[in-house]
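Chain particulars:
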Amino acid sequence: MTTRLRGVIAPVLTPFTGSLAPDVERFIAHCEWLVGNNAGLAIFGTNSEAASISVAERKSLTEALVEAGIPAAKLMPGTGACALPDAVELSRHASELGAAGLLTLPPFFFKGVSDDGVFAYYAEIIERVGPGCAPIYLYHIPQFSHVPITLGLIERLRKRYPTVIAGAKDSSGDWANTKAMIDNFAADGFDVFPASESLLSMAMPLGGAGCISATVNMNPAGIHRVYAGWQGADAPELQARADAVRKVFQGGYMIPAMKHALATYANDAPWRMVRPPLAPLDSSTRDAIDAQLQAIDFSMPGYPRA
């Protein structure tokens, strides 16, 4: 039986070479560091630049992680796609490798689609992958997908596929929506992950499952301390420390900012590579981020340096 993922999960940054190919060696090393700091791996999430990574590249990188000894029980690959056959192929591949879960976007080109259409999309994935389908975590990020995961849709999918529809990542930024997901479905085994560690202190007492947050890439140990210690006397201090790190990166340039910081702290300039249409940061923005990180005494203990 697949072990359910809970806790702190990173939408893993994807390193690229100078020719913009995925950098497998750096990818594996980054994932090993994250796992070593109690993080799960939502490879090919939004902050992985997943929309810029092909189906073949995603499959190859997932295989590379498993071959390198990363436990499949730590993996929640992103398998959503505009094209249903791509979503099925990615979901089947990750399931066959033993991934603990699938983080599955709704199709995100057509706007104004009905719950019936989105239900059919997820149903087709589950039916086509078949009995071996890994647990699916619905990815609610309407500001990008423009296709919401509504409470009614969750209820319908849970009723039809109670053992496959396992939870959701709520990236809406709307705490009221996250709370409604938890209040309505968590008691029935539906795991809700807010997309920011800043919500952990509110989500965990209600039955939240953890968080799937971009800045786990930078601060896995600190965020895990918030998750594990939310009932402790020092919980407010732990939350404040994690929030201070997140504040540095949560501007509109989050991906290149985190990659810049990785390049700096790993002494490894190629980490700054992003795939178009994203672009590296200009020098003034890099300097501002460096100053903010120094001001909060930020560090990445144990990160492999070049």
